[in-house]
Amino acid sequence: MSHPARWLAILVLWGCAEPSAAPPAPAEEVAVAPAQADAARGHERMAELQCQRCHEGTALPVVSQAQRCVGCHQDILGGDFDAPPASVRAWRHTLVSLNHAPALDRLGARLRPDWIARFLRRPHDVRPGLPATMPRLPMTEEDARDIAAALTEDAAPLASPPPTEESVPTGLALIEGRGCLGCHRFSQVRESTPTMGGAAEALAPDLRHTRERMSEAMLLRWLEDPSAVHPGTLMPSPALEEAERRAVANALLNAPLQATSPPRVPERLPVLERPVRFAEVSERVFSRTCWHCHADPDFARGDGGAGNTGGFGYPGRGVNLMDYAGVSSGYLDTEGERRSMFADDDGTPHLVRVLMARHAEEAGSFDDAVTGMPLGLPPVSLEEIQLVETWIAQGRPN
Amino acid sequence: MKRATLTALAAMVTLGLGMPSTSEACMHIVEFSKDDAVAAVAQADRMLSEGRATRAYQAARRARRRLERHMRANGRDAATEAVVARARRITALAAVRLDGYTPVSARTARRHVLRGRAERSLRWARERLRTRAEARPEDLRAQMHYAEALARLPDGRAEAAQILGRLAERDLMPDAHGYAALLRVSAPGSQSWNRALTRCQQMAPDDASRICPSASAPHS
To answer: Which residue among A90, A156, A296, B43 sits deepest, i.e. has the most Cβ atoms within 10 Å of its Cβ?
Structure first.
């Protein structure tokens, strides 16, 4: 629709309104963080938290190849990694996490700063196609607010659109008819299984969260031309007329959500009767996931990973899960005191407690005293936690 | 001429394939796949923890020599130096666990034993492990290894008992070798001795007798 035609349509709509009803004034939306947020400090915190190890578009200095988690995985998947071909082929089959991460440039045009700040403090799964989620990094509310300001500082204020008369059912029909659900889920509204695959499906957010993440103005602009909002996006132009965009936006923001039972924190399983030795626990748990961040620094240029020598804003916790002696050597607490990972912690061995805390986080329950592990990855299964607990209960046989 | 060129090429290929490059965090697994000298040091460490000190000593020494040759030819780098330091630690610790009787030719052994080689070897190992422990105060393995060396020398037993007792008390003993050393410096048959023996046997890999004394024949 051309600009004159759009204005004509708006005037016609105003003309149809009740004479006593004042036309809604196009208000300025708050598209940037509150005034007290300090974007410059936010950039400093982003550098300390090493956001660029996973995300593109941070405007932070590029890190070494060995520190680029996602970039390194993409090199392996693309066959460009400098390692023996047989090893690269084997790793390709086991790489499931951190193969994609959303880019952070021009974020202010597509995400609300208040949502970003909340999400950073309490990360949850908004992209069901990605096994990993945003990890829970060490940050205060002030940090999260400042980082949100830094990520959105270049956003131009958008005028709020007038109220729409396009119906939610029309919008839902368009969402289904235009193939949006080929990449996106829309949980609590429509059951669907995306079939597109690849990066487009992996990075497609669950549309259920749109109402918290975007304002209506942002959403309408995005639906009009995604590439103009975020050059390089995998979101194709949906080729919708303005009325259709209004209907789709209305459905995304206002479609009634089906009631769901609140997620439950699962109970841990009882210890096993059969003997469990370290080799089994290491093979199924420690060597499969944990050692990515809890490695042996001697074999890695002094960098034992975020959970050992430090990284992603965390100080070194001195945890090495590469071998029996490393696991037995404990961790450094917040006071710098070394403690056993098997010490009783509210009736639960500390190691089991942190593994269970990740399940709680997935259910939306965050404990300020314990960060769930593995950080930002799907929880270790209850059966595997049972294995760890059994091994501990049996005296940690080697 | 042709033979000399081939020899030089072979040496270059061997060194080139066998040397560590930059690595960090989870990249260590990449290093193991690319570099058999690095993998050999890791393997030597495993052999040592399993109680196969002689094999560990030999493997670590071979790997260390390769890595040092590489550094002489290509210059020093932090990644290689870290692995060399680890190989040195393995040889020192193996010397401790062999009571100073490291594998050498029979002729050399006879000559050195006559000159008190075993004790000199133990004292050399203790100094190497002490330096490492002081440089890594947070590394409990390094503390335990130093205490193991102390426990084998008459003038180090009290300090060994102090270090190892503290680790045991806080349930932070890295592995069975620490409890085996604690048994050496504890009064046989006491409650703490029995507890240390139980933990030693639980924490030892498959064949506990390689590491832990039997209950009926305690270490002196």
So the answer is: A296
Point out the residue among B29, B203, B205 whose CB comes nearest to the CB of A396. Answer: B203
CA atoms within 13 A on the CB side of A354: 16
Q: Judging by beta carbons within 10 Å of its beta carbon (0-12, 13-18, 19+), is residue A159 exposed, middle or buried?
A: exposed
> Alpha-carbon distance B49 to B210, whole Å?
10
Q: What ipTM was predicted for this assembly?
A: 0.82
Q: Please, which residues bridge with residue A186 across strands?
A: A190
Question: CA separation (Å) from A89 to A77, A85, A96, A99, A264?
Answer: 9, 6, 14, 15, 39
**Chain A residue numbers touching B86 (CB-CB < 8 A):** 298-299
DSSP A195-245: ---HHHHHHPPPGGGHHHH--HHHHHHHHH-HHHHSTT-SPPP----HHHH
Q: What is the mean pLDDT of residues B195-205?
A: 93
Q: How many CB pairs under 8 A join A and B?
A: 120
Whether B202 and A396 lie within 8 Å, measured CB to CB: yes
CA nearest to A360, candidates A267, A284, A294: A267
Tens of pLDDT, residues A32-78: 445 589 999 999 999 999 999 999 999 999 888 778 888 888 888 88
Instruction: Name every chain B residue with its beta carbon within 8 A of the beta carbon of A306.
Output: 25
Q: Which residues of A274-298 are buried (b: 16+ CB within 10 A; e: fewer)?
A: eebebeebbebbbbebbbbbbbbbb
DSSP codes joined into one string, A133-184: -----S--HHHHHHHHHHHHTTPPP-BPPPPP---HHHHHHHHHHTTGGGT-
**Cβ–Cβ gap B174/A329 under 8 Å:** yes
B117-135 confidence digits (pLDDT tens): 788 899 999 999 999 999 9
Instruction: Specify the range with the lowest mean pLDDT, choosing from A42-51, B75-84, B163-172.
Output: B75-84
Nearest to A176 by CA among A227, A244, A105, A229: A244
Site from A53, A321, A329 to mutate, B interface, most B CB atoms within 10 angstroms = A329
Say what the pLDDT of residue B73 is: 87
Give the model's confidence band at B12: pLDDT under 50 very low, under 70 low, under 90 confident, else very high: very low
